[in-house]
Amino acid sequence: MSQPLLKAESLTIAFAGIKAADNVSLEIEKGEFLAIIGPNGSGKTTFLNLCTGYIRPVSGEVYLEGEPITGWAPRRIARQGIARAFQIPQLFTDQTVRSNLLLAIASRQGVWDGLKPLARRRYQEEADELLELLGLSAHADAIAGTLPEGLRKLADITLALALKPRLLLLDEPTSGVSALERFSIMETLMNAMRTKGLTALFVEHDMEIVERYADRVLVWNSGSILAQGKPAEVLQDPRVVETVVGVA
Amino acid sequence: MKILYALFAAAFAALAIVPFAAPWLQFVLTIAIAKGFAAVGVALLLRAGLISIGHAMFYAAGAYTAAFIVLRSGISDLFVLLIASTLVTAVIGALVGAYLVRYRAIFFAMLNLAVSMVFFALLSKLYGITGGTDGLRVPVPTVLGMTLTKAGFDIVLFYVALALMAIIAGLGVQFLKSPLGHAVGAIHTNEVRLEYLGVSAWSVLLIAYTISAALAGLGGAIAAVSIGHVLPDYAYWTESGHLVLTAVLGGIGGVAGPFIGSIFLEIVHTVAVGVAHNAWNLIMGATLLLVIFFLPQGLYGLVTKSADKTSSAKLGENKS
Prior knowledge:
The complex is a heterodimer of chains A (248) and B (320). Chain A is an alpha/beta fold and 248 residues long. Chain A has a domain at 6-81 and 165-245: 3-Layer(aba) Sandwich (Rossmann fold). Helix content of chain A is 36%, strand content 24%. Chain A has helices at 44-51, 74-80, 97-106, 121-133, 149-162, 179-196, 207-213, 231-234, 238-245; strands at residues 6-15, 18-28, 33-37, 59-64, 67-68, 82-85, 167-171, 199-203, 216-221, 224-229. Chain A has a six-stranded mixed sheet, sandwiched between helices. Chain A has a four-stranded antiparallel sheet with strand order 2-1-4-5, with helices on one face. In chain A, strand 7 (167-171), helix 6 (179-196) and strand 8 form a beta-alpha-beta unit. Chain B is mainly alpha-helical. Chain B has one domain (2-313): ABC transporter involved in vitamin B12 uptake, BtuC, CATH 1.10.3470. In chain B, 79% of the residues lie in helices and 1% in strands. Chain B has a two-stranded antiparallel ribbon with strand order 1-2. The radius of gyration of chain B is 20 Å and the shape is globular.
């Protein structure tokens, strides 16, 4: 049996005595689209921060295809194939969407290739392809900071996809956007995911989104995993209904 | 863009005839270009959102390196001096930068200031090595084995400085268009995202810092052989402040900005001293206030805006 793409083993971390991860273990299989749900402050984003090296666990290990990556810097983990899109989109706001994307594409080579221009044909073609895939072609030359929230979310996801990651981490991809936009964003995202054959983990508050798109859902509560399994089953679990669904 | 390049070509041609048309300006412009190199270095760091109030130390390091080489090794070729000073300053910049680029905002500015003042103190106190506050005299260098008179050398130096300015400006434009150049600006906008793209902000800044130090060193070496004397004052903090002012005044939107700022400041300074010996500071201050109030993008912004207007007007004419 092949090993999981990502494996977290006995992760523990606390902030001011409040545990955001309490001896948590979980695995993500290749090709899976795993959702993490839970109340605000339960430790969902902290888990993403632990996986991407933004913070270090007090104890426990994170493995990427069997290789321990605990304590590595975010840039090293990114180079190993874990890309992240943020709850608040992290863009180079004074540059165009295309420039953002070109820099992301160039960063796969480490940006150290001398004085060759960033806007070279090979990068431009790849950028055009990604912009088309994420439905951002019409906004390619807009300054990233001037876009509405939904488009900035998509642009942020596009930057992560440009890294050609093995695992994509998405922190609330539909938060802060209108009810009309969220399904449109998810459809675009899922289309890109299928096209690229990606594995993804996404933190989400919207149960409709989780039910419709996730292969598996994991319920995070007070730093522990309360339940996990198929969305249709987990979302009916009375404990989940009481702690998460009822308040989400 | 064509209009902009035409403007720069015209300005370059105007500078090139200065030794014949206005010889009194030749020395002023040589020093302005020398300081312009250092200001370009400062502007590069400003693009990353970092203000260095200590870059005069690299200007001084370049100047003293040139002086040491001439006085201690006997090598006095201009090009050897310029290349060696640039390389030595780049190494010093890399060593100092490895520590300093870990810091941001006021901490970066203050640490640069602190290191530069330590450097200034060493230059002032190590009399046996540096000549103390008297500094060191720099004899007129040879040029490719030829011994020239001081006047002849100054003309050659002016054209070398002018050519180097054009080369550095060209390379600088290419650098800013490169992924690394974009990454420098990206540090200012969103360092977190840059790290999550797998790029080390520390490495990017260290390269930028080393380049900026090397440019300041080149400028310092040109100043040393032009003035013929190096002093600890080259490294004093007011000189560092002057470089920041030059970069901001010229504008950091393009590589030409700091050179424009430097030439503008040196000319205003020279004219102000000549016109009102006791009030030149007032004239300088008033000029700076006018530029800061009315040209937020610096003088470079004024140039690009003029070029854009001319382009638009031409486009309108062609359409009608």
